[in-house]
Amino acid sequence: MKLTKKRIRQGIGSLTYHGFILLFGFFMFYPVLWLISSSFKEHAEIFQNAHVLIPKTFRWENYVQGWRGFGGITFGTFFKNSMIISGVSTLGQILTSSMVAFGFARVKFTGRKFWFRMMILTLLLPGQVLLIPQYVVFNYMGWIDTFKPLIIPHFFAGPFHVFLMVQFISGIPMELDEAARIDGCGPFATYYRIILPNIKPALITSGIFSFYWSWNNFMQALMYIQTPRKYPASLALQLFADPQSVTHWGAMFAMATLSLVPIFIIFITFQRYLVEGISTTGLKG
Amino acid sequence: MPSLKKGPKRVRSLEHDNLAGYLFISPWLIGFFGFMIIPMIISIYLSFTRYNVLTPPRWIGLQNFKDIFYDDPRFWQALKVTFTYVLGAVPLRLFFALVLAVLFSQKRMFVGLYRTMYYVPSLIGGSVAVAVMWRQLFGVSGALNSFLVKIGALQTGFGWNVHPKTALLSLIVLAAWQFGSPMLIFLAGIKQIPASLYESAAIDGANRVQAFFRITLPQLTPIIFFNLVMQTINNFMVFAQAYIITGGQPFDRTLVYVLYLFRTGFTYNKMGYACALAWILLFIIGVLTALIFRSSSYWVYYESGGDL
User: In chain B, whose CA is at the least distance from the CA of A275?
Assistant: First the structure.
């Protein structure tokens, strides 16, 4: 008798738990579902009974229409631009950050502590403070309306990535380095042959963050890119969604949905790394 | 547990090698000077000038700062808006993050799936796609109004993101919606709390609520502190959402600081003035961070420090 009572109480507890999480989760998730659903709706349906999640008819044409883009430039071009910017930035970020992290974690040199502290300090400095002077510098160098301001700064090791990799390298036994040295490896060979293959998880974590930030970067694109043909997807979408000029809302929602697809793919594929990255460094922009 | 203070461990057994060391860190060093120190120096200089990019900067001393403090109601408006935004968004974010982290720390079915589900808004929240979606969701003919009209709470649509009283609120709700990252950090922190603490509390007859307030909450204070600092800084920097969803409208009611800075620099071409605004922003954030750090000794509980 006592046992069943306890079980009933547990059952109610568990029901409340899942009920609450699912109900609250539905509200949390509703905007996402609404975005996807709107991307299939007919023009009129987007504005009438807008809250309904299931479209009367699934109009895949919205995607075709949206892909055509504007000004004779398709979204294919915009996505390609985004891919180039994010891809090259990420490559540069991983490469240089792992080098710097190796330097801080495994090479003894004068000023090592000082520079590391400086780097940590810059982690807390909000980048927006340097908006104007960086623009002035890039303008002076003739980088305006090119991908350079969006790519090249990522070839100089971001503090977030270095910090993440230093933490990871610290977990690799020093004996590996010593053994390599005895075998005649210099610091460069140690970095390339010993450390790099051993920090793959950190490289992946850092890579997905870098790609993700770059893909979502709106402000820098807005500042530096002027020619529509060079727009990354984020900037193109913002223009495409301008309330004064949107004529086909379904197509706009279709492209908005599509612009989130790469992020979702990365998230689903590398979820474990992402969660680990956030909880070990505690950082996310 | 996130900790920024921990540096690299002492490198014991390797030879001292300055050349290799500096070669390895050179990408960061060059970037540090090229993209940070030099722009910073330029920025200090420009903040004392009048500069519109086209003609050379003209030295005007402290005039920019004088104008900002005594002659610029939009600066004060931007400050008011940003503080309101931060004071609304940060506590909401941390509250939801903590509650959900506690719920997800329980061993239950589907917890992993739930955690992922609740993280999705944070994953996509910063994108342009979500910003344009938000504008429509809260717009006159958006889903919120459509629903409210349907259940009879409203007669006709209400422009949530264009009405002076609610526009900023729609941005705050968007910020609060993205509590996934602090949630994951809290979750990692909760997992570090020794189970023995809860066991002895249970023996003493404490219920779950007591255990939360007497154990979980005090043990989490260092992480609450960390999240508070990071979230305050991050939310102070809000830009894209305000730019896309409300554009600072109506009547500057959503003119957040960085948006004002951006407009000053790139729309009105007042680069010197914008640099001065940027330094004031850095100063405010510095003071805020220092205040949070100062206050931490009163409410952050450290295992080793003191006899609580």
Answer: B184
Cα A192–chain centre separation = 26
B303 has a pLDDT exceeding 70: no
Contact A169, A195 (CB under 8 A): yes
Report, as an integer, the average pLDDT of B95-117: 88
| Number of domains present in the structure of chain B | 1
Residue B110 with chain A: CB contacts under 8 Å: 18
Task: Give the per-residue pLDDT at A280.
Answer: 61
Task: Check if B68 contacts A (Cβ < 8 Å).
Answer: no
Q: Tell whether B229 is covered by a domain.
A: yes
Tracing tokens 């540096």 back to the chain, one arrives at B7
Structural domain boundaries, residue A92: 65-281
Instruction: Look up residue A40 and give its DSSP letter.
Output: T
Looking at residue B93, its pLDDT comes to 94
Q: Which residues on B lie below 8 Å from A273 (Cβ)?
A: none
Lowest mean pLDDT, pick from A8-12, A159-163, A214-218: A8-12
Confidence check on the interface: ipTM exceeds 0.95, yes or no: no
Check A126 against B233: CB less than 8 A apart: yes
Structure token pair of residue B194: 């020794």
Q: Do B135 and A162 touch (CB under 8 A)?
A: no
Domain count across chain A: 2
